């Protein structure tokens, strides 16, 4: 993916991050998705006083994508609020894998512009996939 498109996704992720609801942790995260149909979606984390009920930025962006009728992630950017890369949690890795192929790019970026790109297969090498579910 070209650097201009990655920068656009980073900008979307940081714009979403500005709306994060994180009164308990103070850790504001943003995410932006480029779907295989070339649409973009963003999301922020939404905390809840009952901690397990909160939602990560990646989950919000995926929900926005699905709500709009898209079902395939080409690239996802995760914007950290500080100098450290913000890798997706285990649950979000599985959520990304649900809508990704093994080559889907996951880009983590910091406020200072440091970034790292991995594939979802590198982040979650043994993802539980739908072909493992008996229906």
Automatic annotation (TrEMBL):
Record GO cellular component, one term: cytosol
MF terms from GO for this chain are: cytidine deaminase activity; identical protein binding; zinc ion binding
Gene3D superfamilies linked? Cytidine Deaminase, domain 2
Catalysis performed (reactions): 2'-deoxycytidine + H2O + H(+) = 2'-deoxyuridine + NH4(+); cytidine + H2O + H(+) = uridine + NH4(+)
Give residues annotated as binding Zn(2+). 56, 89, 92
Residues holding substrate: 45-51
- Tell me where on the tree of life, at the top rank, the source sits: Bacteria
Extract the Pfam families matched here: dCMP_cyt_deam_1
- Asked whether the UniProt record includes Nucleotidyltransferase among its keywords, one would answer no
Q: Keywords for this entry? A: Hydrolase, Metal-binding, Zinc
Q: What is its EC number?
A: 3.5.4.5
Q: Does the keyword Hydrolase apply?
A: yes
Q: Which InterPro entries match?
A: APOBEC/CMP_deaminase_Zn-bd, CMP_dCMP_dom, Cyt/Deoxycyt_deaminase, Cyt_deam_tetra, Cytidine_deaminase-like
| Family affiliation | Belongs to the cytidine and deoxycytidylate deaminase family.
Entries under PANTHER family matching the protein: CYTIDINE DEAMINASE
Record-given protein name: Cytidine deaminase
Q: Which organism is it from?
A: Salinimonas marina
């Amino acid at each position: 993916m070209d650097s201009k498109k990655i920068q656009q996704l980073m900008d979307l992720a940081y714009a979403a991050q500005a709306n994060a609801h994180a009164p308990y942790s103070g850790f504001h995260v943003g995410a932006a998705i480029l779907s295989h149909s070339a649409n973009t979606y963003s999301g922020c984390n939404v905390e809840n006083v009952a901690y397990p009920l909160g939602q990560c930025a990646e989950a919000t962006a995926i929900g926005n994508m699905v709500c709009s009728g898209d079902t395939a992630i080409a690239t996802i950017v995760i914007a950290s609020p500080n100098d450290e890369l913000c890798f997706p949690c285990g649950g979000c890795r599985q959520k990304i894998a649900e809508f990704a192929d093994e080559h889907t790019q996951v880009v983590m970026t910091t406020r200072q512009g440091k970034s790292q790109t991995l594939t979802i297969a590198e982040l979650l090498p043994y993802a539980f996939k739908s072909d493992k579910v008996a229906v």
